[in-house]
């Protein structure tokens, strides 16, 4: 066959290889030369720089001529891009090999420094590149969307378990904490806390002042408890403190005393000052064969009411003598 001149070959087959009858490279297209970079191609044995992996057994120029018209799979150098190609014989006994990047090689085309201008006008490689880029963009956008959905889910779950006024955990958040502790082997304690005197402040100064007092109470509770302790507001002026890895009565009594002392400090509410205190009741997981959070909360609640009945501003540990029929006393004018 008559071989096209160099300009025509470079335009129509920018990744071609022209070889002599012995398989030695005479010239290459501009795109293949760009991919090869500093690798010298002209003058070298074609199969030494472009070994054929499929079909198997092509190891000589004669083998390559015998494969004329068949689809070949080759690789440029050691670890280079995978290529597809078709070889035909030329009239001078040489060979003309037309190459194209394989689909796997297209994913790394940025590293090869190629653009649409490096391919023949009829080559569909640029179209494939656009599709791959679109797929990459869609995958990235999908990943970002999934991340946003996950962030929204986490935020929604956090908000569902958070008291909007104090930013403490609410009853739902508290239940989740207690469920985890129940499954563990470490001891823990649950302390119920009810403010003494809150109703009088709320009635005298209004609900806005009452809300500010609850926010200050939450801040003080966080300030006197340990970093790993969990403080929750379960409703009204009722709070719960959970103490992971702690069931020592003396330590818990000390913390309860600090809580009462902190809450008895005056609170500035606008132009007014308010004073409150708190009554506390505590249940220990070590007092149960199988700790049940619901029962522990109920027992801590009974101990709390015993503290109120004993004079308020006190802390009481639950004991069986507190019984199962304790009821919250009716608050007087001082709460």
Automatic annotation (TrEMBL):
Cited CDD domains: GGDEF
UniProt domain GGDEF: residue ranges: 186-320
UniProt cross-references to SUPFAM superfamilies, sorted A to Z: Nucleotide cyclase
InterPro entries listed in its UniProt record: DGC-Regulatory_Protein, GGDEF_dom, Nucleotide_cyclase, Rev_trsase/Diguanyl_cyclase
Top-level taxonomic group: Bacteria
PANTHER family for this protein: DIGUANYLATE CYCLASE DGCT-RELATED (PTHR46663:SF4)
Protein name per Swiss-Prot or TrEMBL: GGDEF domain-containing protein
Taxonomic source organism: Palleronia sediminis
């Amino acid at each position: 066959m008559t071989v096209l001149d160099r300009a025509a070959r470079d335009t129509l087959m920018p990744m071609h290889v022209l070889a002599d009858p012995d398989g030695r490279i005479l010239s290459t297209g501009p795109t293949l030369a760009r991919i090869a970079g500093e690798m010298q191609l002209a003058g070298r044995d074609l199969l030494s720089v472009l070994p054929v992996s499929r079909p198997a057994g092509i190891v000589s120029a004669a083998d390559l001529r015998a494969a004329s018209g068949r689809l070949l799979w080759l690789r440029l150098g050691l670890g280079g891009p995978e290529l597809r190609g078709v070889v035909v014989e030329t009239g001078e006994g040489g060979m003309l090999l037309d190459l194209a990047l394989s689909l796997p090689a297209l994913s790394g085309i940025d590293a090869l420094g190629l653009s649409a201008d490096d391919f023949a006008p009829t080559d569909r490689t640029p179209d494939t590149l656009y599709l791959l880029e679109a797929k990459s963009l869609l995958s990235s956008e999908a990943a970002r969307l999934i991340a946003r959905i996950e962030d929204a889910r986490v935020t929604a779950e956090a908000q569902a378990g958070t008291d909007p006024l104090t930013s403490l955990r609410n009853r739902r958040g508290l239940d989740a904490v207690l469920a985890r502790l129940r499954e563990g082997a470490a001891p823990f304690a649950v302390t119920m806390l009810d403010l003494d005197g809150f109703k009088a402040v709320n009635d005298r100064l209004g609900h806005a002042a009452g809300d500010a007092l609850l926010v200050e109470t939450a801040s003080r509770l966080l300030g006197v408890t340990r970093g790993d302790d969990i403080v929750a507001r379960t409703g009204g002026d009722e709070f719960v403190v959970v103490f992971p890895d702690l069931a020592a009565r003396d330590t818990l009594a000390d913390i309860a005393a600090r809580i009462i002392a902190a809450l008895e400090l005056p609170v500035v509410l606008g132009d007014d000052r308010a004073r409150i205190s708190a009554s506390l009741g505590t249940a220990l997981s070590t007092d149960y064969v199988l700790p049940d959070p619901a029962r522990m909360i109920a027992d801590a609640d009974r101990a709390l009411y015993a503290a109120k009945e004993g004079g308020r501003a006190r802390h009481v540990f639950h004991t069986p003598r507190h019984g199962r029929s304790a009821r919250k006393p009716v608050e007087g004018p001082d709460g």
